[in-house]
Structure prediction request, 304 residues.
Amino acid sequence: MSPPANTPVRDRLRIAIQKSGRLAEPARALLASCGLSWRESRDRLFCYGESLPIDLLLVRDDDIPGLIADGVCDLGIVGRNVLLEQDGGRSGNGQPSAFREWRALGFGGCRLALAVPDAWDWQGPQELTGKRIATSYPALLSRWLEAQGIAADVVLLSGSVEIAPRLGQAEAICDLVSSGATLSANQLKPVMTLLESEAVLAGPSVEFDPVRGELADLLLRRLDGALRIRHSKLLMFQAPRNLLPSLLPLLPDAETPTVMRLDDGDDLALQALCHGAVTWQRLEELKRAGARGLMVLPVEGMLA
Ligand code: PRT
Ligand code: ZN
Prediction:
């Protein structure tokens, strides 16, 4: 979709990320691994892109979907939980959402879970009928309750949701959980998962104009490369040709290896990009199977 005729075309891309909090540093690190660098403004709210015309706006995570919807920012890095909570289309106001998830980014993992006091002999969701559930995610919780056909009261709290049952504000809670330590510390136990979440790259539901579209495509290509190699290592070794059939099955997570013939006789040199962990144990197994000169190298970049 093209912008209206009177809208000046912006020739820089603007990405909103969390100013401080759990996603702030990993989001910056991921964008930096895509070759982006910035000059920070004095107020630390804006970072001017130096290596590419891609700027950052540093904001509260809750503001990110709205900033994309209003066109103030083009893209954003935000938890799926926040994005879906603010997803107007799904929350039933009839308006199609102006933003959507473009990529899952593999950090900030957590789940939106329903939790009840340890002493509750939980038999299933129907037990929530007529109960009060405290949450900061009223839209996601209401949608879930509706899908389950359960009539319960949603008590909206902006923080410290986990103490609501002890304060008598609610019988159950619906909150984000990662390690589960907060729930245990408050004598609560998770009983249902409503959403598996992680940080995502969010973007508009419609296409960009050609200038920003080209920049976004460039960023996505780099991002896909960076995500693909995030846990990858380049494994190099030598081995006699006749041992390949027993060595290759030890590399199930590797892309097809590059195989080079060495000048002297029947030995081969192999390079394999492994997407799983290359542990000492794996190296020892490969050595036992006949590999020599094993070397593990970090991968800095990859463009498919
Ligand atoms: O200031 P701003 O509004 O930007 O930040 P915020 O305080 O709203 O968000 P922040 O930084 O706490 O979280 C940002 C995003 O990180 C969330 O939207 C999630 O997508 C993701 N995330 C991942 C989490 C957690 N893990 C998490 N554990 N967000 C919050 N928690 C909280 C949870 O609410 C609970 O209080 O941690 C506690 C539970 O942790 P465990 O490890 O004890 O289970
Ligand atoms: Zn927030």
About this structure: The two ends are 28 Å apart (CA to CA). Residues 13-108+199-228 form a domain with the D-Maltodextrin-Binding Protein; domain 2 fold (CATH 3.40.190.10).
